[in-house]
Design a protein that fits this description.
The chain is an alpha+beta fold. The protein folds into 2 domains: 4-193, Fructose-1,6-Bisphosphatase, Chain A, domain 1, CATH 3.30.540; 204-335, D-Maltodextrin-Binding Protein, domain 2 (3-Layer(aba) Sandwich), CATH 3.40.190. 31% of the residues lie in helices and 22% in strands. It is built from 8 helices and 15 strands. Bound molecules: adenosine monophosphate (AMP) and 6-O-phosphono-alpha-D-fructofuranose (P6P). The site of 6-O-phosphono-alpha-D-fructofuranose has 8 residues, from helix 6.
Length: 336
């Protein structure tokens, strides 16, 4: 079975001018994933569960494991010199690697080091999400905010790690989506899901229906559509919501389905962050034949304005996204 390392190197061989920097970057992410995986798997035994008592820029209660994962990925990304800076859910501002080695890095990485971390205390699977861009500023200079505020369509690579019943790393560099499962006895990721494709239709919808009253009218219409009896279109669908984006996304990628986080009364622009949650998953889902939008615009076409900006997020099977978009747009027009 092909290992993740072999898969990355094989792909590099298709780029004769490649220096190996992206290969090395991807390998550093692989290393950090193994370190985080090791400690998540014993989180109940060491003092890394629970809250730090600190609130991050999101106003969210920072978990000890959030900070642990953030530090491990930052250290791995800084160590090898391909990355000049990082944006992270756990960092208020962008982190510049202020050394000659760092300034010579030609990539920037945006990440949610541990998404869904509040689930760790109750042993529900969580994930790391990452997004990689070539910097816009000259190599050797100090990176700027513009290096991080690129549209998702400019991503060089994106992926996630899911720390679940098994630990998987799923990634794409624009040539399909490939999944690797970690053999814990060896600490090696092996290719287990080559060229993952999301079914164009699905029967699973993922949304926090506790926010129903605040949803846009088109989303309410779509939920009723999902719940109607109609044998021809395999309805009613099934509601599955883990409360951990990477887990819901991964299941829908494999089985078909739609994940929705609309605007709510608490989150007027949706809860999920464009740069390090929506863009990487939108990149992956499109590579797998699916679609991701904010209800009106392709996620990957949105020009970011701020590092931590939030957007409404609809992501999954192509025909399911088309359906919810049509209802959102139809009722939005009627509304305005
Ligand atoms: P590099 O000089 O190693 O940073 O590679 C230059 C470009 O070649 C990258 O930005 C990618 O577009 C492509 N490339 C290099 N290595 C890989 C790889 N391992 N997998 C996919 N694309 C790669
Ligand atoms: P809610 C976790 O905090 C997260 O960012 C995603 O992983 C998850 O899908 C969502 O928020 C859950 O949010 O408001 O439904 O609890």
């Amino acid at each position: 079975m092909k290992t993740l390392g072999e898969h990355i190197v094989d792909k590099q061989s298709e780029f004769p001018d490649a220096t190996g920097e992206l290969t090395s970057l991807l390998s550093s992410i692989k290393l950090a994933a193994k370190v985080v995986n090791r400690d998540i798997n014993k989180a109940g035994l060491v003092d890394i569960i629970g809250s730090t008592g600190v609130h991050n820029i999101q106003g969210e209660d920072q978990q000890k494991m959030d900070l642990f994962a953030n530090e491990k990925f930052k250290a791995a990304l800084e160590a090898r010199g391909q990355v000049c800076g990082v944006a992270s859910e756990e960092e208020d501002e962008i982190i510049i690697f202020n050394s000659e080695k760092g300034h010579n890095g030609k990539y920037v990485v945006l990440m949610d080091p541990l998404d869904g971390s509040s689930n760790i205390d109750v042993n529900v699977s969580v994930g790391t999400i990452f997004s990689i861009y070539r910097r816009l500023s000259p190599v050797g200079s100090t990176p700027t905010l513009d290096d991080f505020l690129q549209p998702g369509s400019a991503q060089v690579a994106a992926g996630y790690v899911i720390y679940g019943s098994s630990t998987m790393l799923v990634y794409s560099t624009g040539y399909g989506v490939h999944g690797f499962t970690c053999d814990p006895s060896l600490g090696v990721f092996y290719l287990s899901h080559e060229n993952m494709q999301i079914p164009e239709d699905g029967r699973i919808y993922s949304i926090n229906e506790g926010n129903y009253l605040a949803f846009p009218p088109g989303v309410k219409k779509y939920l009723k559509y999902c719940q109607e009896e109609d044998k021809e279109t395999n309805r009613p669908y099934t509601s599955r919501y883990i409360g951990s984006l990477v887990s819901d996304f991964h299941r829908n990628l494999l089985k078909g389905g739609i994940y929705m986080y609309p605007s709510t009364s608490t989150y007027r622009n949706g809860k999920l962050r464009l740069l390090y949650e929506c863009n990487p998953l939108a990149y992956l889902v499109e590579q797998a034949g699916g679609r991701a939008s904010n209800g009106f615009t392709r996620i990957l076409d949105i020009k970011p304005e701020q590092v931590h900006q939030r957007v409404p997020f609809y992501c999954g099977s192509l025909n399911m996204i088309k359906k919810v978009e049509s209802l959102i747009q139809e009722h939005h027009t009627q509304e305005s």
